[in-house]
Amino acid sequence: MISQKEVYIQLKDNLIISNPSGLKIKDIAIILTDKEVKEELLNLEVLSKKDMGKMYIVVSILTVVEKIRESHPDLSIIPVGESELLVKIENDLEKGKKFTTYLKLGIVAATLFVGTGLAIMNFHADVNMGEAHKVLYRLITGNDESRPLILQIPYSFGIGLGMALFFNHFFPKHSNEPSPMEVEMYLYKQNMDEYLLDNEKNTEESK
Question: Rounded to two decimals, what is the model's pTM?
Fold first, then answer.
């Protein structure tokens, strides 16, 4: 029998696991306690394979505490941090859908590319950018030119260069500062995870 000891336990951040045969504490949580106790606790099974049939599983800290107390009733367990963890189960069937995923990504990218191009052209038509270039060329050179390419060509390249600089994808990163796109993707993922946590039953509610 293990003497009374304190065990601090913290659930990890949302994680993805592939073809799990089961879910152990070491997969989903961080434990702080004596070394000999820690090794035993990390290998305790929280969920068996038959309990992991869904794509998303919400694991409650109460489930982890219950499993520890079943095998080590004399431990003093102190949960730290979040009370629930979102786990995504990725099986071989999902891995085989990579071609379909890339195809969808290509279609979306092409659609966004065409749509963005049309939006830029419509904006330039609305503000009469062609006439503005003619006036600017006349002010600089004193000559009239129906197609001031010396202004229009650099301007066109400048739009693409400006977008690349704005999204921080032109030069190699020298810091861990995220780009605006990375921030938006992070917020989207965070909202998605919060929705799943709010709407999926956790391991305690499913009993």
Answer: 0.59
Phi, psi of 144 (to 5 degrees): -90, 140
Residue keyed to tokens 């992070």: 186
Query: Crossing angle of helices 149-166/129-141, nearest 10°?
Result: 120
Q: Which of 98, 58, 103 is nearest to 82 (CA)?
A: 58
- The two tokens of residue 75 are 């431990």
CA 189 centroid distance within chain: 4
Q: All domains of the chain, ordered by start, with CATH?
A: 6-93 (2.60.480.10), 98-184 (no CATH)
Predicted confidence (pLDDT) per residue in 150-182, tens digit = 988 998 888 888 877 777 665 666 566 777 777
Q: Sign of the C-alpha dihedral, residues 55, 59, 64, 67?
A: negative
